[in-house]
């Protein structure tokens, strides 16, 4: 009874805290003591997720499969490595789950150093999320360089199977929900790579398979092979944003025809499509400020910043942040299952989920966006 009473009390406390009451005295709150707060966030007992986490999130079916993914998913590409602060990484994952983000995306080489993001996530699973494993869609990938020698890269059966075994060990999991081939291999026969994905499903290491960074015709061929093998391609993960529109040249149409879902990574152009760089400066801690970041200062040109400022004005007229408008713009496609966001702090995840409050565009707004991007 004492445990049940404390659980009920802690849930009331957590609901109150989630309403942004960050500065408070315990006497004026449902939180009767500091121990209640510790209980909520797992310092002394297990993490308790938000009971209403599924009420506000939108879930979209991936292609013609039976699987639905949240419209906003969390990627652990940056800010979850061994060089990052564990408490912040953990806070972001738990807040994402509290907001209904059930899909968490990783890869073998995420860090830095490579593999450390999966290790960090494994700690969060063990500490907080193990009881909720069946409520999560966890993905990993292999296809980029992971270890030295001829078997630690690209798309051979040897590499893909060995890499996933290593990933499962790092995360402390028996299986992942989705396993991707991370990029096309120009030398390994596509049949071998797809047969490896089929084997990985049949061996129980993953439930579904997908591909990433495949051009349209290669994606069509991969989907055909997998379908013939009896393991349909669930989803494709390409990069896509207002500043990176290559998928519009055939890939999205191909995925629709093949019944394959789509989840876009870097939908905010590595943070460029946020208010972070509006002032023309590079904030400390931003991706552009980090030596291991993919967004380099040289990419933040005056021309792009001018477009970002104009897009920001349009977003404000829609009563959205720039990031929210950019995510909604990616989600406007029928085939788009989810947008895969990165984050460096909890507030960015909360802002991204706020996108779902305004997904529609008028024809005039879409025309304005096109005019800005084509200048």
Walkthrough of the structure:
The chain has 375 residues and is an alpha/beta fold. It folds into 2 domains: 2-40, no CATH class; 59-373, Alpha-Beta Barrel (TIM Barrel), CATH 3.20.20. The chain has helices at 2-18, 34-40, 86-98, 116-129, 157-171, 190-202, 216-229, 251-258, 302-317, 322-331, 346-353, 363-373; strands spanning 59-61, 68-70, 72-75, 103-105, 137-142, 176-181, 206-212, 233-237, 261-265, 336-341. It has an 8-stranded parallel β-barrel with strand order 3-4-5-6-7-8-9-10, surrounded by 6 helices. The protein has a two-stranded antiparallel sheet with strand order 1-2. Helix 5 links the parallel strand 5 and strand 6. The longest helix is centred in the N-terminal third of the chain and has 17 residues, at 2-18. The model is unreliable at 20-27 (pLDDT under 50).
């Amino acid at each position: 009874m004492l445990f049940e009473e404390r659980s009920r009390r802690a849930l009331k406390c957590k609901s109150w805290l989630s309403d942004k009451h960050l500065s408070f005295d315990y006497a004026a709150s449902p939180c009767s003591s500091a121990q209640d707060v510790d209980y909520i966030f797992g310092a002394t007992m297990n993490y308790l997720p938000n009971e209403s986490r599924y009420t506000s999130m939108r879930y979209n079916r991936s292609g013609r499969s039976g699987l639905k993914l949240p419209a906003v998913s969390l990627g652990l590409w940056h800010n979850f490595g061994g060089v990052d602060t564990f408490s912040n990484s953990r806070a972001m994952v738990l807040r994402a789950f509290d907001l209904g983000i059930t899909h968490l995306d990783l890869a073998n080489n995420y860090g830095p150093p490579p593999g450390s993001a999966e290790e960090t996530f494994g700690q969060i699973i063990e500490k907080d999320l193990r009881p909720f494993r069946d409520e999560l869609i966890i993905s990993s990938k292999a296809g980029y360089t992971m270890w030295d020698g001829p078997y630690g890269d690209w798309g051979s059966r040897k590499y893909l199977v060995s890499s996933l075994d290593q990933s499962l060990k790092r995360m402390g999991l028996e299986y992942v929900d989705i396993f991707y081939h991370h990029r096309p291999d120009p030398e390994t026969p596509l049949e071998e790579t797809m047969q490896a994905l089929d084997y990985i499903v049949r061996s129980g290491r993953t439930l579904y398979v997908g591909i990433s960074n495949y051009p349209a015709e290669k994606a069509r061929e991969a989907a055909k092979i997998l379908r013939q093998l009896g393991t349909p391609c669930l989803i494709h993960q390409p990069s896509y944003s207002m500043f990176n529109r290559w998928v519009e040249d055939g890939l999205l149409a191909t995925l629709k025809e093949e019944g394959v879902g789509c989840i876009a990574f870097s939908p905010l152009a590595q943070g460029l499509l946020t208010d972070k760089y509006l002032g023309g400066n590079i904030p400390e801690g931003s991706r552009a400020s980090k030596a291991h970041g993919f967004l380099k200062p040289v990419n933040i040109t005056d021309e792009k910043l001018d477009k970002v400022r104009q897009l920001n004005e349009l977003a404000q007229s829609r009563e959205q942040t720039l990031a929210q408008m950019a995510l909604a713009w990616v989600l406007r496609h029928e085939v788009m299952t989810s947008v895969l966001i990165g984050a460096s702090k909890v507030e960015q995840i909360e802002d991204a989920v706020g996108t779902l409050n305004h997904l529609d565009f008028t024809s005039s707004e879409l025309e304005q966006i096109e005019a800005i991007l084509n200048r």
